[in-house]
UniProtKB/TrEMBL annotation:
GO molecular function: DNA binding; DNA-binding transcription factor activity
Ranges annotated as spanning the membrane: none
Keyword match Transcription: yes
Annotated protein name in UniProt: Transcriptional regulator, GntR family
Transcription among keywords: yes
């Protein structure tokens, strides 16, 4: 694995996690590696070498090997013959279209079920509003990664309120497979600002218990995110060919 200052810095920032040989597990290593991939500290196409990762994280190779197997099963890394793996490439525009379209329907269903079944409590609404406030604060600070984390928390809060275990599992798997977190790497501040405004409208519909409107707004919100992401990908592709 080539030297990666970004990943080194990522490990230093997460040094509070106990990764001693005694306590390390494949779950902990998986959590660290997947987070580094999602945040862009491990780049698409970057080769992952068990021995070097183990040395960097100061663990034995066994939990690293087990974590890499799980990463490959989740589609976050791909086999790189003759041996080893690389971080999976960004999704194609065709894949993003499919995944976001499915996501818009399922997330719209989640918010509708949450409202129609009266599962959203005043505490949940307070949490959603707190997420909005924090998002606006981080927007002024230019902390787009933190906003991306809050975006996940926003949607997760609503999805948990649907009380539909199967729907939650499907959305979680869809999220991991579609690699939506890569949107934070190439997203722009203006899209983040619009996203927060769209979140506000969704919360207002939830407060009014208007499930039809909330579902409509949620579906539009996901589609808007997809279009912004694809537009940015096309822009980068055009720049790279010049």
């Amino acid at each position: 694995m080539a030297k990666n200052d970004s990943f080194d810095n990522f490990l230093k920032q997460n040094s509070a996690i106990d990764l001693s040989v005694k306590t390390a597990t494949s779950d902990k290593v998986y959590s660290i590696l997947s987070k580094a991939i999602f945040q862009g500290d491990l780049k698409p196409g970057q080769r992952l070498v068990e021995s070097k990762l183990a040395k960097l994280m100061k663990v034995s190779r066994t939990p690293v090997r087990e974590a890499i197997i799980e990463l490959e099963q989740k589609g976050l890394v791909v086999s790189s013959p003759p041996k080893g793996v690389r971080v999976a490439p960004l999704p194609t525009k065709e894949a993003l279209n499919e995944f976001y379209d499915i996501s818009s329907v399922l997330r719209g269903l989640a918010v509708r079920k949450a409202i129609d079944n009266n599962n959203i409590t005043p505490k949940d609404i307070r949490q959603l509003n707190e997420i909005l406030s924090e998002s606006e604060r981080f927007l002024t600070e230019g902390s787009l990664r933190k906003i991306a984390d809050l975006n996940i928390k926003f949607h997760s809060t609503i999805e948990q309120c649907s009380k539909s275990k199967e729907l939650i599992i499907i959305l979680d798997n869809l999220y991991k497979k579609s690699r939506e977190r890569f949107s934070e790497i190439i997203s722009k501040a203006d899209r983040q600002k619009k996203s927060i405004e769209e979140h506000k409208m969704i919360v207002e519909a939830i407060i009014k218990k208007d499930s039809v409107l909330a579902e409509k707004l949620m579906r539009e919100h996901i589609v808007n995110g997809k279009e912004a992401l694809i537009q940015e990908i096309e822009l980068r592709e055009n720049c790279s060919t010049k």
